[in-house]
Amino acid sequence: MLKKVIVWIAAAITLVSAALVGITYVYQDQIVDRLVRELNQYIATPVQVKHITVSAWRTFPDIAVSFEQIKIPGHIGSTQSLEFPLADIGRMDFSFNLLSLLQGTYEVEKIVLSNGRVNLLLDAQRNPNYHIFRKQSTSEDVSSLQKNPLHFQLEQVHLNNIQVRYRDISRNQHVLANAHQVAASLNVVGEEYTIAVNGALESQYIEVGEDRYFVEQPLSVNTQLLYYNDRQQLAIASAAVGLHDTQLNINGLIDHAGETVLDLKVEASQSNIATLLSVLPASLARPWHYYRTTGDVYLKGSIHGPADQPAVQFLFGSQHASFFHPEYQQKLENIQLNGSFTNGTERTSRTAELSLKNIKATLDGEQLSGDLLLRNFRDLYLETTFQGSFSMQSFLAFYPLPQLQWAQGMITADVFLQGKISDLKSSELRRRRQTKSSGTIAVNDISFALQRSHLPFQQLSGAFQVKDNNLTIQRLSGYVGHSHFSLKGQFRNAIAYALTQTHPIQIDASLRSDFIDLDELLSGNLSTALSSENMARNTAQDWQMITEKQPYRLEISPRLALNFECDVQRLKFRRFRGRNLQSKLSVQEQRVRIRNLSVHTAGGQAYASAFVNAQHETIRAEGKTRLDGMHVDSVFYIFENFQQDFLTAQHLKGEVDATSDWRLNLNRNLSVQYPSLSSETYATIRKGQLNSFEPMQRIAPYVDEAQLDHLRFDDIQNYIRIRNQEIYIPTMLVHSNLSDIQIGGTHTFNNHIDYRFEVPMRSIHLRSATARERVARRKKDFGEIAQDDAAPMKLFLKAQGTVDDYKISYDLPAAKAQLKENLVEEKQELKQVLKNKRKAHSYEVELSDEYLDFEPSPQNRP
Fold it and tell me: Alphabetically, which GO biological process terms does the record hold (predicted)?
């Protein structure tokens, strides 16, 4: 029996299918022809259709006519109908009732639009692009339409993946939404149309002027609408709009008789923060878009007036609510507030106002409270108060800041701020002074690290006073890396600086420091690992450490202006160690001025003033320096032997006094551009020693001194000039423990040397055996030969080449010049002697009557 039933069912299905196919085949040309012809009577604009098919299965049991790739440009009177075509639909299906079709009546019961766009446009002249239907102006036209066998008895209209855009250019209004799966039904009784809409939408945005609302909000719609055609009124009997797990209940009336007028009520008894944010402009709601709430949140309001500019009023609030981000662990809890929003008397964003009053909440157990008032979203006016304490760690867990890697410590604040944001950002001092601010801020043991920095800020504690855009530092101390600082002074224009990317900040303060590590501050890297438990021990260790050359980088913000009075106990930079540094430091427009700097270093005292211009990639610097009693070997050690190893700290000892004027250029990595370096230095070296200096050791074979590897000399003075990558040392006389030696010459930056020496002749070695025998015979015959110590003859030598390959040789040109000079001097002396002799012959000598009685010589004695 079952087998027979299955056979009969299969036969019936086969028969029905065959019938449908047959009917479709028989009527398809008539259906398509009739549908196209009748639609052309309704539509006044050309419609482009790529392909038309008839199917018995697509909308079974009805027969479907499918238009594919439909393009409707819109009403030709609209100036932008080409830019915004009325419709561009992938497929449109018309469903015909099968029984009516067999009776000769073509009834369209269902229309399905899939995969496309619909644009409803009012251009600048308010010409709509959707007036595409022909006007039936005569009774004959109307009666002919009534006799047509094609009728639209729409029970369902479906939208599948259709983007719907409404744009009123003249009023600067723009609505964009995606209809994913929306179904509508229509029931007509006389002049009353009952419309039901149900489905899922996604609001891309509702734009009014410069503000956007409902940005990227998923919506579910379930509405019952009544349209009174004779009165041209749309009554919203009930409309439930689902938004973020909140159901908005909307009811009211929309009157189209003349100018469109709205009279709507909106209410949500069980709402959440996402719903509240949806009714705010996107510029205000965006930072909180992903946050969620729990607890009791209410919302109610009204929209009343002309559709192009209605009055909007909303009241909202919460009791015992929580506010959190789904990805973060921290919550803002126990939230209580009362709020309101209105678009004001002008019904625009210019008169809009958002008010949050009696705000109370807890963050990780700490109490917070305050008020917030925002007006005029085109030129935002802000009035807010805040009182409370919170930990930085809890705050970042609740609302991460992209600039910070991590933070900890406590902040306590009681502040008030009032004024226009544009006034705070204004470059005019008069406008900035129109804003008001006051209050106090205290930070306790704050530590944090910036995202693109390896130097953490540690143990910051202090108190600030807020007053009219300025921040007075009553006290602030802490560490940047290993560098300690203690500030007292004022941050001028601090609020405008924090709120903008263009405004400068002026810091006038006294800076006290136990220790500053310039290697860290200029490189952005820690010298050694930090230990917050014993920062003092770490800085002491870092003071002793010699830091290798770092990839330094000097960047001065054009927004930064400083006036510091500095008092630094210890300062470290590469090999430099300074104590008791005092100076005045000012920064303005990326130009640095250092005045009255003094520091104890290298066993003496250094004084300096300098000017640095960092406005360009090439940094220009110039200044004056004075050294008092500094150890020469320490100076060479600090300056790393001035980037050469010919004359080093191991060769020199003594104390130096010097004054120097210098100029140079550097790049951003603080590398000296040597062609730009020039200086003029007057130096005195006292108690000097020159030890194991190779050129002096190579001179030793020429002189009668065996201890040139340990040369001690009296005070020497000289003027040293650096220019064009060459050090010029004028000839100077060195009074040493061995002999008087004159030395001078040049030393280039590529280590080419040209030094000249003058060594007294008496020190010359008699190197040959013949010469030594001749001296010995003269001593035997005549005794010790007397020497003229007043003006000994000199041996002229020169050292030329590179520091790695140079030669000691006789300086013939200098010897000739000396000989010529000596001959001139001797000629002058000879002339003077002859002149004196002639004068002696002119004298008359009178003999005395007395005479001297000489004792006779032995030969004349009797």
Answer: regulation of protein targeting to membrane
